[in-house]
Structures are given as structure tokens and as C-alpha cells.
Amino acid sequence: MKKEKKKLRARTVSRSAARKHDKLIDDRERLARLEPGGSAERAIEIEAASQLPLRAESYACLRCDGRVRYVEDRVLDVGGGLRRAATVACKQCGTTRELWFSILTPMLN
């Protein structure tokens, strides 16, 4: 005699799917840190600071694949070199992400 499987409640199925989705997002975020722009050591090289907002907005949200908008950037001294950390936010879900850039041409004073 085979024992019939108990039917899962809708809430149980929903919570299980949400946990799987969260694990997928965590994996995508870990992979993004290894890609260009994911860390200061892997900064994206650009010619001028004016290119930064456009390049930052060309990336998709890691959580929902939506479009992001440029919020701000900061100049940081990382390991003897200057890097810019740009913050972008998703227009759909609001998730923020930091992208790293390195400007090839020096600033003239």
C-alpha cells in the first residue's frame, strides 16, 4: 500500500518559492561582486567623470532586472588610487547597489 502525499498549503508553497528566490538573489549579488564594477579592485575604467551616470544606469537591477537610476557617487582613496563608488537604485523595487569606477584621465586643477 502506497501512502498518499499530503497536499501542501498555498502559504507553504509560497514561502518555499520566496526562500528559493532569496537564495537566487544572494547568488546573483555574490557573482556581481566578482564582475567588473563589483568592487574597488574590479573598477570599471571610464575616460571622464561625466560618463559615470550614463554607465551606471546601463546596469540592471540584480533583484528584478529592472532599470536603475543614478543616485550619487563618492570619491574614495582605495589602495593608493582614487576610485568612484556610484550608488544606483532600482526604479521598480527600490533596491540599491554600488558600482565602482576608475577615471583614466586625471583631473586638472
What features would you highlight for this structure?
single chain, alpha+beta, four-stranded mixed sheet, 2 helices
What is the secondary structure topology, with strand pairs?
Layout: H1 10-34, E1 44-46, H2 52-56, E2 68-78, E3 81-90, E4 96-103
Major sheet: 4 strands, mixed
Please state the overall shape, judged from the principal axes of the Cα atoms: elongated
The overall pLDDT, averaged over residues, is: 90
Low-confidence stretches: none
| Structural class by helix and strand composition | alpha+beta
Cα Rg: 20 Å
Note down, in words, how this protein is organized.
The protein is of the alpha+beta class and 109 residues long. Helices cover 28% and strands 29% of the residues. A hairpin with a 5-residue loop joins β3 and β4. It is elongated. The protein starts with 9 loop residues before the first helix and ends in a 6-residue tail after the last strand.
